[in-house]
């Protein structure tokens, strides 16, 4: 209403209001201002809890296959009693974990939620070598379903829903999300494990190659029927967390438990040991530990057994419980081979912020401590020991399955013991992703181009098959079974729920790693190949603070940040990066060099077949297979996507293309599908529950952004705020009765034909450059509205709630705002309201010049003359959208629009303070009457004519509160209207 509001044009590039209307009785939703006579919410919405389940990397075709094999009872039940997407759904680009989960959570694409990849760069960081991980706190720039549900007063529980711990504001309900690591992991062996220590060194694992000795000094141990042996296992603290977790020793007592006159060792007993001092002379006393005491044993294992060993952290984490798992992999009867494997000491990340009044939160055992002390220690699949060759495939798989079993224990504790009944359960598992990474390429006989896969059942591609296809197929299936079991537990605990079972991405076989940094070096773009993901070599110091304009720029010109098959290449651009070295005028030249380097990449081992699927320039990321991956400051300047079986992770230093032990990958083009080659980048999607339809035929066209808004609809909560997807009527039990009324609104346009500028990130370092980017403007608005109009199933209208003219920039103002109206015609506005700025020049100009030029009606029900007369201003003669209702010249109280058989009455209203905000006399014969009475009268009249839904819009604001609970004159007005389904303000 005043000039300061002009700034809102930028943030309100477009406001989407989707009303769902039930045929017959009218039922709007998403309206916080529901009025007495507006009809009740859609039957069924909000009556049932909701389970949002994601199995990382789960594919629809594999779920279908395992359902066929009767291995997935929970998924089978969903499939039989609900609906599924045709080959699941389309995920965001790149279809990787860091983007996919965020897209499911927010209902919008990475271009808007800002989680661009598992690892990415935020341009403007003071240090060009820095990088950002997807699930770091505060990274998401869009609202999530969990936050929306909590704002609406619902109870949310999140167990292994990736990223839930990093929401800002934090979830108040119980959250268990991944784990923190406090020690090394590795093996102790008394024989030379093949490939060691090179494999362990490469992956940063510990390889303790030892000899066993005769046991001495032990007490309270079982009798050994062969001479007992001993060793000591060291579990070394991580340098970064040494304060919380010191190095630890565990004494191993290896013995023969069978009294059979045979040398057949079969067990190892494990007890906390005394750590040798640095000089290896005195034994350092660990408090309460005497060493070599069977009475303090933490495990007594046969070969193949796992132990779960708890430890108590120190320092900052004093008294907190963490733990690790240990497996006796080899106990040869003659001890020719003895090997134990230990996982990292870890602690589950758990929080229950809203638990002050709940049981189970009180000290000394808070929620996080209970989760870690009373339940199996936090663990999950770990590719490194497998790829390093220090453990076998079965051990890897067992470890992964331990993790998923943990999730079920945590969930049962939260629901059964703490008594938390979630309205929304966010539940996930990573095991499907992990096992697919390790085995998919080993069980896929054929490549996309028809070639035989040299790694099919042949880990080393040495021509000798492993004979493990069935075993490895079984491993992948076991991950899906674990996911099925976890989801089954969720459904058992949260009864009567509507369920979505989906994924963050699909999978393809992979076994060749491409070294993106090496390619940049070979192309001469950087001098030295970068030493790791998203970094530079040699490290460069920011030039901030060295204001010598003559100093030549130093440092790498570019770097690559990758995950799976997608690499984003960022230029170290002058002005954008605080230590930039690439001048702006060279931007396109360097980008073209990068494009050429990658586009030309072929694989000589395969007759120079192409390795790269597509290279995108930054600006082309706006539409990747229909998804939006263009973020103003976080997208790469060039983005490269590979073809399977190539990918970027775990590249071999110095080699552009080399074998990789990742046998499955994601991050290819999101619509990549070739089942003959076991390639499917789509994510699974099944839904079932009391609010979900039953359908035999899989539904095409579902996108990952659709799930959060549909889930919010089923929960009957507003939001998430930035959700861009469609509510999926077709999957709803009552979907056939619904029509969607899509209203696109921008207010206070103020003739902003040209863009404004805003920064797209909030880098906190004082040396950072939060660069500004063009926002809004007519060109952007039209594209934005077109995108929404294109997907609105029952049609859309575009409206402005007043003040589209007046207080405009020179490009419009200089021409008396006629350009603003012409631009609104081109954008395709369907109606505008009348605010104070509409009368800056005066009523004659508004109704005599502006209104006739507009190809849309101006609407106001409360702009009236004293005697109800129709002053002689010229009426618009141009065609208008909708059907103008008879009224004073130049404007009408309302207009009626039709949406697939449903009539919507749109009533305009004006702000009552127009006389105070404009010069005297500018309203001429008009005055602004009480909007509530005028709206109610017009609504009654329209309903009398059979109009089924009513929306009022005008130049009045919600001036306080927040998006979830707004306050102010618009909210007051909405509360007093009768028979109005939604109110749109400024
Ligand atoms: Zn993955």
Strand sequence of the main sheet, in spatial order? Answer: 3-36-22-2-21-6-7-20
What is the second-level CATH architecture of the domain at 3-19 and 735-760 and 770-984?
Answer: 4-Layer Sandwich
Our measurement of the CA-to-CA distance between the termini, rounded to an integer number of angstroms, reads 8 Å
The major pleated sheet works out as: 8 strands, mixed
Hetero groups = zinc ion
Oligomer: single chain
Average predicted confidence as pLDDT: 90
Radius of gyration over C-alpha positions, nearest whole angstrom? 32 Å
Name the CATH class of the domain at 3-19 and 735-760 and 770-984. Alpha Beta
In CATH, what is the homologous superfamily of the domain at 3-19 and 735-760 and 770-984? Metallo-dependent phosphatases
CATH fold-level topology of the domain at 3-19 and 735-760 and 770-984: Purple Acid Phosphatase, chain A, domain 2
Regions with pLDDT < 50 over 5+ consecutive residues?
1-16, 20-41, 278-285, 874-888
Helix content: 10-25%
The beta-strand count equals 51
Question: Structural class, from secondary structure content?
Answer: alpha+beta
Enumerate how many helices there are, as a single number: 22
Strand content: 15-25%
The backbone outline, from C-alpha atoms, is elongated
Explain how this protein is built.
- The protein is α+β, with helices and mostly antiparallel strands and 986 residues long.
- Among the domains are: 258 residues, Purple Acid Phosphatase, chain A, domain 2 (4-Layer Sandwich); 212 residues, no CATH class; 149 residues, Gyrase A, domain 2.
- The chain has 22 helices and 51 strands.
- An 8-stranded mixed sheet has the order 3-36-22-2-21-6-7-20, with helices on both faces.
- Strand 41, helix 19 and strand 42 form a beta-alpha-beta unit.
- The longest helix is centred in the middle third of the chain and has 25 residues.
- The chain is elongated.
- Bound molecules: zinc ion (ZN).
- Zinc ion binds next to helix 11.
């Amino acid at each position: 209403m005043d000039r300061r509001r002009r700034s809102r044009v930028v943030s309100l590039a477009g406001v989407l209001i989707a009303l769902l209307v039930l045929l017959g009785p009218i039922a709007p939703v998403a309206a916080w201002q529901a009025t007495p006579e507006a009809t009740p919410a859609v039957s069924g919405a909000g009556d049932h809890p909701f389970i949002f389940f994601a199995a990382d990397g789960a594919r629809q075709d594999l779920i279908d296959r395992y359902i066929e094999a009767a291995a997935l009872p929970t998924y089978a039940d969903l499939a039989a009693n609900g609906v599924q997407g045709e080959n699941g759904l389309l995920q965001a680009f790149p279809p990787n974990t860091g983007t996919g989960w965020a897209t499911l959570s927010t209902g919008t694409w990475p271009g808007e939620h800002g989680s661009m990849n598992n690892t990415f760069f935020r341009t403007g960081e003071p240090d060009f070598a820095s990088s950002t991980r997807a699930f770091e706190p505060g990274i998401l720039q869009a609202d999530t379903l969990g936050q929306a549900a909590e704002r609406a007063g619902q109870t949310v529980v999140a167990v292994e829903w990736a990223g839930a711990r990093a929401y800002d504001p934090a979830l108040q309900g119980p959250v268990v999300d991944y784990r923190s690591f406090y020690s090394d992991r590795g093996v102790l062996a008394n024989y030379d494990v093949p490939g060691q220590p090179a494999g362990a060194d490469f992956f940063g694992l510990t390889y303790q190659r030892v000899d066993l000795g005769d046991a001495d000094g032990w007490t309270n141990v079982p009798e050994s029927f062969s001479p007992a042996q001993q060793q000591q296992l060291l579990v070394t603290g991580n340098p970064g967390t040494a304060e919380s977790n010191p190095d630890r020793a565990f004494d191993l007592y290896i013995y023969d438990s069978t009294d059979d006159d045979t040398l057949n060792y079969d067990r190892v007993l494990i007890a906390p040991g005394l750590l040798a001092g640095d000089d290896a002379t005195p034994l350092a006393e660990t408090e309460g530990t005497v060493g070599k005491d069977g009475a303090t044993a933490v495990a007594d294992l046969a070969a193949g057994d796992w132990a779960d060993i708890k430890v108590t952290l120190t320092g900052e984490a004093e008294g907190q419980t963490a733990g690790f798992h240990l497996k006796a992999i080899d106990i040869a009867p003659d001890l020719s081979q003895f090997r134990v494997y230990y996982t990292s000491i870890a602690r589950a990340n758990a929080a229950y912020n809203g638990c002050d009044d709940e049981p189970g939160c009180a000290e000394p055992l808070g929620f996080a401590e209970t989760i870690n002390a009373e339940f199996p220690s936090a663990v999950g699949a770990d590719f490194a020991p497998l790829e390093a060759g220090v453990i076998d495939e079965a051990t890897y798989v067992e470890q992964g399955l331990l993790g998923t079993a943990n999730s079920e224990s945590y969930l049962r504790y939260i629901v059964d013991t703490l008594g938390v009944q979630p309205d929304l359960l966010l539940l996930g598992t990573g095991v499907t992703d992990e096992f697919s990474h390790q085995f998919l390429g080993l069980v896929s006989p054929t490549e996309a181009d028809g070639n035989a896969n040299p790694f099919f059942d042949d880990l080393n591609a040495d021509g000798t098959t492993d004979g493990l296809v069935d075993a490895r197929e079984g491993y992948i299936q076991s991950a899906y079974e674990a996911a099925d079991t976890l989801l089954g537990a969720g459904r058992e605990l949260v009864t009567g729920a509507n369920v979505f079972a989906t994924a963050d991405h699909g999978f393809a076989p992979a076994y060749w790693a491409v070294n993106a940094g090496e390619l940049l070096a070979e192309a001469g773009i950087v001098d030295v190949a970068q030493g790791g993901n998203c970094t530079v070599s040699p490290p460069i110091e920011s030039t901030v603070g060295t204001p010598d304009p003559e100093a030549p720029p130093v440092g790498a010109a570019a770097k690559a940040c990758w995950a799976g098959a997608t690499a984003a290449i960022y230029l170290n651009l002058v002005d954008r990066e605080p230590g930039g070295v690439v001048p702006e005028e060279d931007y396109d030249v360097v980008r073209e060099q990068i494009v050429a380097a990658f586009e030309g990449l072929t694989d000589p081992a395969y007759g120079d077949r192409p390795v790269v699927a597509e290279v995108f320039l930054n600006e082309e990321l706006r539409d990747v297979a229909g998804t939006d991956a263009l973020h103003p400051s976080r997208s790469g300047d060039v983005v490269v996507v590979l073809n399977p079986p190539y990918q970027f992770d775990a590249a071999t230093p110095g080699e552009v293309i080399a074998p990789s032990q990742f046998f499955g990958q994601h991050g290819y083009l999101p619509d990549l599908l070739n089942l003959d080659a076991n390639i499917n980048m789509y994510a699974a999607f099944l839904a079932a529950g009391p609010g979900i339809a039953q359908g035999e035929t899989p539904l095409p066209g579902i996108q990952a952004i659709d799930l959060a808004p549909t889930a919010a609809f089923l929960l009957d909560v507003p939001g998430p705020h930035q959700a861009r997807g469609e509510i999926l009527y077709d999957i709803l039990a009552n979907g056939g009765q619904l029509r969607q009324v899509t209203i696109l609104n921008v207010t206070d346009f103020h003739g902003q034909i040209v863009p404004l500028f805003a920064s797209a990130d909030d880098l906190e370092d004082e040396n950072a450059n939060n660069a500004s980017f063009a926002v809004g403007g007519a060109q952007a608005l039209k594209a934005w509205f077109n995108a929404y109009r294109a997907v609105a199933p029952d049609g859309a209208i575009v409206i402005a709630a007043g003040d589209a003219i007046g207080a405009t920039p020179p490009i419009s103002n200089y021409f008396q705002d006629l350009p603003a109206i012409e631009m609104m015609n081109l954008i395709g506005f369907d109606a505008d309201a009348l605010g104070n700025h509409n009368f800056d020049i005066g009523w004659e100009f508004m109704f005599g010049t502006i209104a006739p030029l507009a190809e849309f009606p101006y609407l106001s029900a409360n702009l009236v003359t004293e005697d109800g007369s129709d002053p002689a201003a010229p009426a618009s003669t141009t065609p208008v959208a909708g059907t103008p209702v008879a009224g004073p010249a130049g404007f009408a109280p309302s207009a009626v629009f039709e949406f697939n058989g449903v009539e919507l009455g749109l009533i305009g209203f004006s702000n009552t303070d127009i006389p105070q905000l404009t010069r005297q006399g500018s309203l001429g014969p008009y005055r602004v009457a009480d909007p509530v009475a005028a709206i109610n009268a017009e609504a009654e009249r329209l309903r009398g004519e059979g109009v089924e839904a009513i929306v009022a819009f005008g130049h009045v604001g919600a001036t306080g509160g927040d998006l979830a609970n707004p306050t102010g004159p618009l909210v007051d007005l909405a509360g007093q209207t009768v028979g109005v389904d939604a109110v749109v303000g400024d």
